[in-house]
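Narrative of accomplishments. A recurring question from our advisory board has been how the design workflow behaves on a single, concrete structure rather than in aggregate. To address it, we present the structure tokens for one chain from the evaluation set, followed by the sequence designed for it. No filtering or post-editing was applied between the two.
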């Protein structure tokens, strides 16, 4: 039966005139995948999920009451959604309190700016600190300065975030946030202010975690809104020294308990092998966590549920993993890999939704070259939704990076990030920014990809393990 189906699939392929790739799904499997796609395009389930999570829970920074409420919400959503093996796996998470953040230019008169502390920033003490500003474009530019120039200064990182569809503009800019504070401390600076890592013209500041280097003094760090950064640049253009005052009351509290929430659509003859769909449950505190990452949570749950309703059963088990604390240190991802060390070899493929609500514009992957035919097969089902075929060098998302580095193959539907960084990690990350039609299309692509991966006849090849930094 299987062979006959393959022949039919081949004939259908020939008729459609697309490529000469070897079909890796039977005609029945392709038909079931097409039905999943079409059902997703008619379904508002993902919308209902992201609406529910943002409305009933809202912000859910790791270790807060909102985080705990999100775990309860997820367990309830998955259990009532017909999933099997719904469970929580305890994760210890850091707990950081934002407090207040103020940044103001002095001279000739005080001019306060819209400011947010970077995640993990230490405080300044209640008095705050006053110092002369030193403008640099980037971390590399700071490191290239002559010794002593930054001593006693507040370093201002001026780099802008380029608007891109694939998020690469963000990836280039974000080093000022992650590495900037310790790079500035290393050359004697007393504080850091960055232009928001984001593309919004609104007067909002974008937060996000910094990463202190344990070898350096921890200095306070904040972001200012892009329009405020524009004003700062105009002031600096005069060439006159400019003093600023920085006050941050952020602090760390003791670690808290959170959880990865896991649920499954059991497979049939290959139930021991896993196709993982991941998203993270936590969010930053400034907005409602709608695009980051309520939308990803909704895509993962809705796609898996649709597969569970398919008449053609997934052979492998579809596992939804809602990771704890992605934003402030990837705690849940680390915990998951530690919990699953024995079973990582049975993780056939991993997918992750963590770049907003979509639509998916490209299908990329990182699979063994002989399994590329699966990616082409998925693409033949979803190409008509405006999805281009990408390349086989995908990095996956933040939470699946640890899996990729241990050899788990990655399927990566890339969500369109053109507008995502307007709201990312800001007070504007609210439900009205989620496009219901884009969300449906994203669910369709994730459902088709995970379903065909779960039906894939071959045993997927492993990736070479990568060195971890
Ligand atoms: Zn995220």
């Amino acid at each position: 039966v299987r062979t006959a189906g393959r022949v039919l699939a081949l004939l259908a392929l020939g008729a459609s005139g697309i490529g000469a790739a070897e079909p890796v799904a039977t005609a029945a499997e392709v038909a079931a995948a097409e039905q999943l796609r079409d059902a997703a395009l008619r379904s508002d389930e993902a919308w209902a999920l992201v609406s529910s999570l943002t409305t009933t829970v809202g912000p859910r920074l790791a270790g807060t009451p909102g985080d705990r409420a999100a775990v309860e919400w997820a367990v309830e959503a998955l259990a009532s959604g017909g999933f099997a093996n719904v469970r929580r796996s305890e994760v210890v998470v850091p707990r950081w309190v934002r407090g207040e953040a103020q940044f103001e230019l002095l001279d000739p008169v005080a001019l306060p700016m819209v400011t947010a502390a970077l995640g993990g920033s230490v405080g300044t003490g209640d008095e705050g600190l006053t110092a002369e500003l030193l403008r640099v474009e980037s971390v590399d530019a700071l490191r290239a300065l002559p010794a002593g120039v930054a001593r006693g200064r507040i370093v201002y990182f001026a780099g802008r975030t380029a608007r891109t569809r694939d998020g690469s503009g963000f990836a280039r800019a974000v080093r000022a946030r992650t590495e900037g504070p310790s790079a500035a401390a290393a050359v004697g600076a007393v504080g850091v202010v960055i232009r928001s890592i984001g593309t919004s013209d609104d007067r909002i500041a974008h937060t996000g975690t910094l990463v202190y280097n344990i070898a350096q003094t921890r200095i306070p760090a904040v972001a200012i809104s892009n329009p405020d950064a524009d004003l700062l640049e105009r002031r600096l253009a005069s060439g006159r020294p400019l003093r600023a005052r920085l006050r941050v009351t952020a602090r760390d509290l003791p670690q808290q308990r959170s959880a990865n929430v896991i649920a499954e659509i059991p497979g049939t003859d290959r139930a021991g092998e896993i196709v993982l769909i991941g998203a993270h449950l936590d969010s930053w505190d400034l907005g409602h966590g709608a695009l980051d990452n309520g939308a990803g949570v909704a895509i993962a749950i809705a796609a898996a549920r649709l597969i569970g309703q398919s008449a053609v059963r997934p052979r492998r088990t579809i596992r939804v993993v809602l990771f704890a604390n992605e934003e402030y240190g990837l705690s849940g991802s680390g915990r998951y890999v530690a919990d699953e060390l024995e079973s990582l070899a049975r993780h056939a493929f991993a997918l992750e939704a963590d770049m907003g609500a979509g639509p998916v514009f490209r299908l990329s992957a990182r699979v063994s070259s002989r399994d590329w035919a699966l990616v082409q097969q998925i693409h033949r089902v979803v190409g008509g939704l405006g999805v281009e075929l990408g390349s086989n060098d995908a990095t996956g998302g933040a939470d699946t990076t640890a899996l990729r580095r241990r050899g788990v193959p990655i399927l990566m539907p890339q969500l369109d990030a053109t507008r995502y960084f307007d709201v990312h990690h800001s007070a504007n990350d609210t439900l009205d920014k989620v496009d219901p039609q884009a969300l449906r299309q994203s669910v369709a692509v994730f459902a088709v990809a995970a379903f065909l991966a779960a039906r894939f006849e071959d045993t997927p090849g492993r990736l070479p393990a990568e060195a971890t930094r």
